[in-house]
Design brief:
The structure is a single chain. This protein has one domain: Rossmann fold (3-Layer(aba) Sandwich). About 35% of the residues lie in helices and about 15% in strands. The strands form 2 sheets. It has a 7-stranded mixed β-sheet with strand order 5-4-3-6-7-9-8, with helices on both faces. A two-stranded antiparallel ribbon has the order 1-2. Helix 3 runs parallel beside helix 4 and helix 6 runs parallel beside helix 7.
Length: about 210
């Protein structure tokens, strides 16, 4: 029956542009989240694996992903918190009222790393401007506080495959490649990058695991 259906129907029109447009419709608890559903699933697996007590998120927007991460930390049950960083305050009231989310609205350059001193397992997620310069600066600033066997996740390297990298001066992938050439403490974890197929993620080569 399946073979007959495929023979009768025309080939499926499948491309990255439609997936990219579709991710703008993703919501979490009614708040626009702007995440690829593949990565939405991978994050809950990764957070359960690492069990961080601090997640630093660069790029808050309305805060849906902050809320998602904080809810996952609640499920783990070890009192984990989210520090989310931005330069604008567009945060949804539901997110503002979540007790284990702390907001920093002066940009990642002004985030004081002393805020991380009392935490044992730290993960960093960069979902900020995606500009090459900003991604590189964030990697250089926060990589030292990522815990061993935890992750620095750089989002949206997919823009290179959508021919958008010129708008971002080379974007995340350029920054990742330079960072890994200079820093041997991290590797690309293909377990997550290739989970649904080779780099079937918006975070292309962006799941960076600290190994030493």
């Amino acid at each position: 029956m399946i073979k007959k259906i495929f023979k009768k129907n025309k080939p499926i029109d499948f491309n990255l542009d439609t997936i990219y447009k579709g991710h703008y419709n993703v919501k979490y608890r009614g708040i626009e989240m702007l995440h690829n559903p593949f990565d939405y699933l991978l994050y809950q697996m990764l957070i359960f694996e690492v069990q961080p007590d601090l997640i630093i998120e660069i790029g808050t927007n309305k805060g849906a992903s902050s809320l998602y991460f904080s809810d996952l930390l609640d499920i783990i049950g070890d009192g984990g918190v989210v520090h989310t960083i931005d330069v604008e305050n567009k945060i949804h009231p539901i997110v503002k009222n979540k007790p284990n989310i702390k907001f920093f609205l002066n940009g990642f350059e002004n985030y004081d790393l002393s805020n991380t001193h009392n935490f044992k397992k730290i993960m960093v997620i960069d979902d900020g401007s995606h500009m090459y310069e900003d991604v590189k600066k964030a990697l250089e600033k926060f990589s030292s506080i990522v815990s061993l066997n935890s992750y620095f996740i750089v989002e949206d390297g997919i823009i290179s495959y959508l021919n958008m990298e010129k708008r971002f001066n080379g974007g995340p992938l350029k920054a990742i490649n330079e960072f890994l050439n200079e820093n041997k403490n991290f590797i690309i974890d293909t377990t997550y990058c290739n989970f649904f197929g080779k780099n079937a993620t918006f975070n292309v080569n962006g799941y960076l695991k600290k190994i030493k």
